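[Discussion] Sanity-checking designs against the backbone

I'm trying to build intuition for which residues belong where. Below is a structure token string of 289 positions. I'd appreciate it if someone posts a full sequence so I can compare it with mine line by line.
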């Protein structure tokens, strides 16, 4: 099964949604990070996960083939409505939501307004749950902070240099030259005003994450050059029953750089979550490592 959909999200924004895999399988909804798109989940949609699961990616508003309106990136309710619209329109029955970096902020937006009653579980990969506050600063690396002005620039040369460095940081040592040009291509689809609008938010989601009732998996690379591993440990402490998986000598984008381990852990965790829900104990999972 493979298909493309247009879903109307918050404020009527048109969102591009792609799905692959078993239409009758457990739905898994992937939320990419800032400046990426659904193509960044290629190594999941084309893996053996598609044999058993219904895999769904969405291009976040302002990204990929989704609509890119101005001034539509600072309202948490709009982000929440985008995710809800995909779940509702595609009739995803208790999906498991996978979030990468900024995608975790979007996941938290959804949880704030809709809760986790319609979900079967969540994953945070290189996750970010705070932004624009003093408490958020220690989780971001100096290398990422240094790129921020260029990522917002309308000067083509400056923006291109910063975007190329951003892609390298995001991919880490596992990013081949061919991968780099593939990633750079879909990153250029995002206008600077989108990245700037997303970065201007001030949010803190400790209250939301502390109320999670579904199984949660946290994955982080020990050599992440964008988000310090301390963020993962922090999330493991505040999310009830969360399981922490640290990848040694791995960077920011585990789903791309370490797909064999990543896909296996996701498969195994989905199976555990399904078993836990059958016995009525959503936290019958391993404690944080």
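Best answer:
Here's mine. Compare freely.
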């Amino acid at each position: 099964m493979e298909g493309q959909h247009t879903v109307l999200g918050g404020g009527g924004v048109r969102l591009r949604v792609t799905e692959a895999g078993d239409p009758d399988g457990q739905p898994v909804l992937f939320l990419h990070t800032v400046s990426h798109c659904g193509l960044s989940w290629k190594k999941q949609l084309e893996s053996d996960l598609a044999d058993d699961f219904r895999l769904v990616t969405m291009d976040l508003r302002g990204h990929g083939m989704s609509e890119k309106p101005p001034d539509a990136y600072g309202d948490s309710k709009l982000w929440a409505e985008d995710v809800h619209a995909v779940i509702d329109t595609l009739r995803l029955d208790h999906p498991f939501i996978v979030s990468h970096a900024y995608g975790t902020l979007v996941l938290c937006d959804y949880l704030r307004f809709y809760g986790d009653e319609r979900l079967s579980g969540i994953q945070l990969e290189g996750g970010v749950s705070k932004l624009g506050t003093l408490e958020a600063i220690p989780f971001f690396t100096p290398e990422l902070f240094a790129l921020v002005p260029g990522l917002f620039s309308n000067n083509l040369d400056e923006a291109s240099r910063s975007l190329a460095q951003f892609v390298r940081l995001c991919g880490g040592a596992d990013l081949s030259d061919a991968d780099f040009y593939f990633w750079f291509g879909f990153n250029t689809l995002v206008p600077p005003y989108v990245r700037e609008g997303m970065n201007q938010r001030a949010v803190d989601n400790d209250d939301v994450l502390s109320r999670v009732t579904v199984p949660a998996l946290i994955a982080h690379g020990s050599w992440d050059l964008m988000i310090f591993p301390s963020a993962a440990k922090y999330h493991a402490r505040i999310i009830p029953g969360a399981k922490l998986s640290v990848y040694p000598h791995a960077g920011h984008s585990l789903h791309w750089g370490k797909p064999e381990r990543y896909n296996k852990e996701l498969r195994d965790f989905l199976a555990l979550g399904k078993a836990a829900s059958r016995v009525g104990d959503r936290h019958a999972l391993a404690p944080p490592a």
